[in-house]
Design brief:
By secondary structure, the chain is mainly α. It is 59% helix and 5% strand. Helix 1 links the parallel strand 1 and strand 2. InterPro entries: ChrB_C, Homeodomain-like_sf, HTH_AraC, HTH_AraC-typ_CS, Tscrpt_reg_AraC-type_HTH.
Length: 279
C-alpha cells in the first residue's frame, strides 16, 4: 500500500511511516512530495494521504497524526502510548507532554538540516524510532545514573544545594500552595499533571524541584500528608463515617484510606477514631 505526505519530514512524518511499516503495513511505500501536490498525487498513485489538513490521518484537537494511527488501527501497546506522548509533545511544541519530547525535537530538527534527502532521513529515522520503542517497551524505568559513586556525588550535591537557605522560593511554589489550600475544602483531587498544566511548567521539572520547597517531600507525599491531616481533623471534629472521610480527602475508597493511614500513623483509622475523646 502507498502512503503519501508532505516533503521535508521532521517528527510526525517520520514517526508515522515508522509506525506504519512496523505495525500496520510492513510492505508500505512512503512517498514525500511538495505540500501542494499531496492530494493530486494521492489520487494519481492511489495512495493514502496523511499528516495534512483535511485528510483522515491528521491532527485532532491536541493530538497529532501518530495518535490517530494508533487509534484508527487499534494498536494496544503501552510502549506505543509512551512514544505517542513524546511525539505529540515534540510535534506540537508542547514539551510538557513528556520530558523526552524536547530531545526528540532537537534530534530531528538537526537531522533534517543535515540530510536533504527525505528517504535517507526516513531510513535513519526508522533506526531512531526502533531504539525509542525498545526503550519504551523494556527500559523506560531505567535511569542513566546506576553506580553507587554517582549516587553519592548526587547526594552531596543535593545537600549542598539545600544548604542555600537564603534562596527565595520561586513564584510557582507560592501558587502551588494556594492551589493546594483551595483544595483543602474539597476532596483533595489535585494531581501533578493538573498543576503543571495550570502553571504551564514541565511536569518533570516540577516533580524534581517540588521537594525543595515542600518539607523535603515529593508532590505525592505532600498531598498524602495534607489528606491525612485533613482526615484526622474531620475525625476529631465531625461525625462523618470513615467512608465519607475517605471521599472528602481524595482517597479512592475506604480500603485505600485505611491502608495509607495505617502505614503513616502506625494504626488503623478505625482504632484512631475509637480512641478519640467522646464529643
Amino acid at each position: 500500500m502507498k502512503w503519501i505526505t508532505r516533503e521535508r519530514p521532521k517528527i510526525d512524518r517520520i514517526a508515522c511511516p515508522w509506525l506504519i511499516k512496523r505495525f500496520i503495513d510492513p510492505e508500505a511505500e512512503i512517498i514525500y512530495v511538495p505540500v501542494d501536490q499531496v492530494i493530486a498525487q494521492a489520487a494519481v498513485l492511489n495512495a493514502v494521504p496523511f499528516d495534512l489538513p483535511g485528510v483522515e490521518y491528521t491532527h485532532y484537537d491536541d493530538q497529532c497524526s501518530f495518535d490517530y494511527f494508533i487509534k484508527k488501527h487499534e494498536l494496544k501497546d503501552a510502549a506505543l502510548d509512551r512514544i505517542a506522548a513524546i511525539v505529540r509533545g515534540a510535534d506540537t511544541d508542547r514539551h510538557d507532554f513528556a520530558p523526552q519530547s524536547s530531545g526528540l525535537s532537537a534530534i530531528f530538527l538537526g537531522l533534517s538540516k543535515n540530510i536533504p534527502d527525505d528517504h535517507e532521513l526516513l531510513e535513519l529515522g526508522m533506526k531512531v524510532y526502533d531504539g525509542l520503542y525498545t526503550w519504551a517497551k523494556y527500559l523506560y524505568e531505567q535511569k542513566h545514573i546506576q553506580e553507587p559513586v554517582e549516587h553519592l556525588l548526587l547526594e552531596v550535591f543535593n545537600k549542598y544545594l539545600k544548604q542555600q537557605g537564603s534562596k527565595k522560593a520561586p513564584a510557582w511554589a507560592g501558587e502551588i500552595r494556594e492551589m493546594i489550600q483551595d483544595q483543602i475544602d474539597t476532596n483533595m483531587s489535585l494531581s501533578l499533571q493538573q498543576v503543571s498544566e495550570e502553571l504551564k511548567i514541565n511536569p518533570a521539572y516540577l516533580s524534581r524541584e517540588f521537594s525543595k520547597y515542600f518539607e523535603d517531600l515529593s508532590f505525592g507525599e505532600y498531598i498524602r500528608k495534607m489528606r491525612l491531616e485533613k482526615a484526622i481533623h474531620l475525625m476529631e471534629t465531625t461525625n462523618y463515617s470513615l467512608t465519607e472521610i475517605a471521599y472528602l480527602t481524595g482517597f479512592s475508597d475506604q480500603s485505600h484510606f485505611n491502608r495509607i493511614f495505617k502505614k503513616q500513623m502506625g494504626m488503623k483509622a478505625s482504632e484512631y477514631k475509637k480512641n478519640l475523646p467522646k464529643k
